[in-house]
């Protein structure tokens, strides 16, 4: 089994790693004050997208064509969807929360959405 370091050493690979870490932090903060509604939505979003980011990193590391991943339509749609969901989850959590921990999770959700938006731009640029 050979490990390819081509993808992780690119800007897309670095952004994917940052998005995964942000997702884990958002998930951990939101789980501290588990409620219904917006916080639960943010928990589900962060879990889904950090696991997907992890799977993207692993599959690109063990694939000979890992550097081609940012040129796929799936990659662009993934980051565009993550941007929209993190944006809606972050805003709704900030609006509906009164606890500092969940507000921090919402703010970090917005930060994650910005990273996914930037990543969408990079994916679109590679697609052209």
Automatic annotation (TrEMBL):
Keywords in alphabetical order: Membrane, Transmembrane, Transmembrane helix
PROSITE patterns: MARVEL
GO cellular component terms given for this protein: membrane
InterPro entries assigned: Marvel
Membrane topology, from the record: Multi-pass membrane protein
Sequence intervals crossing the membrane: 12-33, 39-61, 73-95, 101-124
MARVEL domain: residues covered: 7-128
Protein name (record): Putative conserved plasma membrane protein
Organism: Amblyomma sculptum
């Amino acid at each position: 089994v050979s490990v390819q370091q081509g993808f992780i050493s690119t800007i897309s690979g670095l952004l994917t790693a940052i998005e995964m870490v942000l997702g884990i932090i958002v998930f951990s903060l939101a789980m501290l004050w588990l409620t219904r509604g917006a916080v639960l939505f943010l928990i589900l979003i962060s879990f889904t997208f950090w696991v997907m980011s992890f799977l993207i990193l692993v599959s690109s590391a063990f694939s000979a064509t890992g550097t081609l991943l940012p040129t796929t339509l799936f990659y662009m749609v993934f980051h565009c969807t993550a941007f929209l969901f993190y944006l809606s989850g972050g805003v709704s959590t900030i609006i509906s929360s009164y606890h500092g921990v969940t507000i921090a999770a919402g703010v970090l959700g917005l930060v994650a959405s910005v990273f996914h938006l930037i990543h969408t731009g990079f994916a679109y640029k590679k697609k052209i």
